[in-house]
Amino acid sequence: MENKTIARTLRLLSQLMELHEENPFKIKSVANAYFKVDKLPFALRDKPLDELDKIEGIGKGLASKIVELLQTGELQELNEILDRTPEGVVEMLAIKGIGPKKIFIIWRTLGIESIGELYYACNENRLIEAKGFGLKTQEEIKSAIEFKLAANGRFLYAQVEGFAKTLFTQLSVWTANIDDLALLGFAGQYRRACEIIDELEIVIGTEQIDAIKQNLPAFEPLSLIEAENSFICTTEAGFRIKLHVVEKSAFYLQWFTLTGNTEHVEKVLALAGNGPFANEEEIYSKAGLTFIEPELREDFDEIELAKANKLPTLIQYEDLKGSLHNHSTWSDGVHTLEQMAMYCKENLNLQYLGICDHSKTAVYAKGLNEQRVFGQHQEIDELNKKLAPFKIFKGIESDILSDGSLDYSDDILKTFDFVVASVHSNLRMDEAKATARLLKAIENPYTTILGHPTGRLLLSRAGYPIDYKKIIDACAANKVVIEINANPLRLDLDWRWHRYALEKSVLLSVNPDAHRTEGFHDMHYGILVARKGGLSADKCLNAFTLEEITAYFNSKRPN
DNA sequence: GCCGTTTTCGGCCCGACTGTTTTCAGTCG
């Protein structure tokens, strides 16, 4: 069992204990153990069982719970408390903006036991009757439920990627048994590398179309049902899959048709005619267009650009020379500064690491006060001597405070090589306030990069509203780079605004926001959306070489 | 339930903000 699973189990246990009003200090210790387990730099399953209670925050009681989890995969105490809690009440824990205390009131005093009932009660204006609830809370719960319902059956790209790849391999092997010359390809949102996937589409082109169709329901990894020209299935987790089986001669046209969005496909085919086509390249060339990568087929401006032969050369993961905006054990990271640096140097073959631990206001994350900033800089200087020519840049993820100011005085700010400014608190501002707040941070001469501009968490939280054009224009005017936060939950700046930023000559940066060494790999997801946005390597800050980015930081810093 | 001793039990506690209150509780990163 992974630490993450153990941590999640402990979190659920602590939340349920709160719902059942158990001893608050017991609850706290379980919640604390969740937090600690989540931040461990080693796997609990590799640790001798009698040493678990030596870990800080884990005593005899919690150690025995973890042993039970590791050995049986279950926790009796959790099962018992789950039995005493309606399923719908447990589901409410996933609604952003309400915690166990409010759910307790909803359940016990209003008698509401499911999210559906809760939504109904909001519409009936019944929530305001309860103590501690008012009109605003009711409205907020209502919109949080709507956001959650809209996420049903939808998944992050990163959530389905592993499953999709495995399925594709299994399907390829299975198909080859019937027709070893069959053609297979992903289509739809997955091939376009959309950040959210509603449905996984795969196209099979074969000369044995009847044999494939007859046997597909026996393809064991899925329970497929024949539908209109396709086979469909929904996994237990609610993920929809659609397989299209087509004549091999029609494969490339079908693959193309099922990949791009409707408008893109219609516009290209209007230019290309009806084929037949030997491959996708031929479709575009017959349409008088240069080849358009699948990620771009969204009917933005890609057809006009292809017509004028002005499509950007899309950035690739291999173009990245370094990684900016990452955390270490100095704040809330799991691995030490040296471990993070060594991983970039040895495993990822990068030239530099930008370390951006949290600033002092982020107390919950061990944010660095002025003395610790100084201490970290000393360690960086030492490591830079040791690791040369690899370079660690002194960065900080400075909170943007409610009034838009940064978290340190200019005297401290000027000691950094670069500053990522981002919002972590007071996320519920309206558009005017949130925009003004960001504008002030962008205009600060020490701001190098605007971090996750909207604070959104895909499928979970909308993020505060901002006036994108004003923000991007201000970044252009103040030479501030905008982050593409590569965490698959964020992917913020949204790719739909990359083009506008690039038109305004704003640089973008694919930042993993890594809190452990494995986190660097999220840059893969950042690259996928950056490609959708039309980013080329020369417009990406962390595709700059060490020399180039050093010069860039030096030119940006006020004297 | 954990910790740190005062080796047997008492103390554990982020701060800002918001919405609900009329002085504070819940939630968040």
Automatic annotation (TrEMBL):
Coiled coil: none
Highest taxon of the lineage: Bacteria
Domain DNA-directed DNA polymerase X span(s) in chain numbering: 1-298
Gene3D superfamilies: 5' to 3' exonuclease, C-terminal subdomain (1.10.150.20), DNA polymerase beta, N-terminal domain-like (1.10.150.110), DNA polymerase, thumb domain (3.30.210.10), Metal-dependent hydrolases (3.20.20.140)
This protein's GO CC annotations: cytosol
Residue ranges annotated for the Polymerase/histidinol phosphatase N-terminal domain, each copy included: 322-402
Keywords carried by this UniProt record: Exonuclease, Hydrolase, Nuclease
GO molecular function term, any single one: DNA-directed DNA polymerase activity
Name of protein: DNA polymerase/3'-5' exonuclease PolX
The organism of origin for this protein: Pedobacter roseus
